[in-house]
């Protein structure tokens, strides 16, 4: 049976309020989300796979310096850019992930190569870079990743010996800067992808939930596809993405019920902030968050596209 194709994307969650946004800035984010959404959705329209659709959408977000992934990645304590990414397909539970990679233009493409061209799931640091070079993944110079706003955030964070989640509130909006996408294709296959530049001024090789299968990213054709964004330590401890799938499979909760229980009850109770996007096997979409806002967009066959930033 053919399924209705659908795609949802996110560009991070956090203290996003209308008072902090100029009309120009708001339109820039809305246009960027709309563009990434349409690029990924076209893949599905042409009969492409969910994996290819989420990859296409995330690549577009990685190439946009408005978002903390790829080109827009934040600075570490040492003034570097260390990026993480993961993706998973729901048919055979195949997955690929990378962490602490540098100079990779599109970390999601490296994660995809790990899934398709290796016998492994998760590669890190120098080993991941060796694999990238061996598989001709495109690299860029340090200058490519330099962004004046990110640089100011880093200087501010370093001066206070503070680790910030993407945007230091003293500089601009505080946002958990991860990008992601979830999709279902004509064949009913689900997929999820997530990519991030991590935390401003992060030290000690810190890794959040984004590259961790089951925490920040998960897909299973029997239940749902999930991509998360938020305070990674809490998402790791709750294994958020897999927890939602479990609630659907074993407790028979709907996608909406499972997402709301995890985000608004379990995550909030622990003090974790952020959100997620999700699609189930019946093409239902949820975009749930407990922060003030989340950059998000979705499009389901037969319906109008939606783009949002704030709580509606």
TrEMBL record:
<dbReference type="GO" id="GO:0006508">
    <property type="term" value="P:proteolysis"/>
</dbReference>
<feature type="binding site">
    <location>
        <begin position="206"/>
        <end position="209"/>
    </location>
    <ligand>
        <name>substrate</name>
    </ligand>
</feature>
<keyword id="KW-0645">Protease</keyword>
<dbReference type="Pfam" id="PF01112">
    <property type="entry name" value="Asparaginase_2"/>
</dbReference>
<dbReference type="GO" id="GO:0008233">
    <property type="term" value="F:peptidase activity"/>
</dbReference>
<feature type="site" description="Cleavage; by autolysis">
    <location>
        <begin position="177"/>
        <end position="178"/>
    </location>
</feature>
<keyword id="KW-0378">Hydrolase</keyword>
<keyword id="KW-0068">Autocatalytic cleavage</keyword>
<dbReference type="InterPro" id="IPR029055">
    <property type="entry name" value="Ntn_hydrolases_N"/>
</dbReference>
<dbReference type="InterPro" id="IPR000246">
    <property type="entry name" value="Peptidase_T2"/>
</dbReference>
<dbReference type="GO" id="GO:0016811">
    <property type="term" value="F:hydrolase activity, acting on carbon-nitrogen (but not peptide) bonds, in linear amides"/>
</dbReference>
<protein>
    <recommendedName>
        <fullName>Isoaspartyl peptidase</fullName>
    </recommendedName>
</protein>
<feature type="active site" description="Nucleophile">
    <location>
        <position position="178"/>
    </location>
</feature>
<feature type="binding site">
    <location>
        <begin position="229"/>
        <end position="232"/>
    </location>
    <ligand>
        <name>substrate</name>
    </ligand>
</feature>
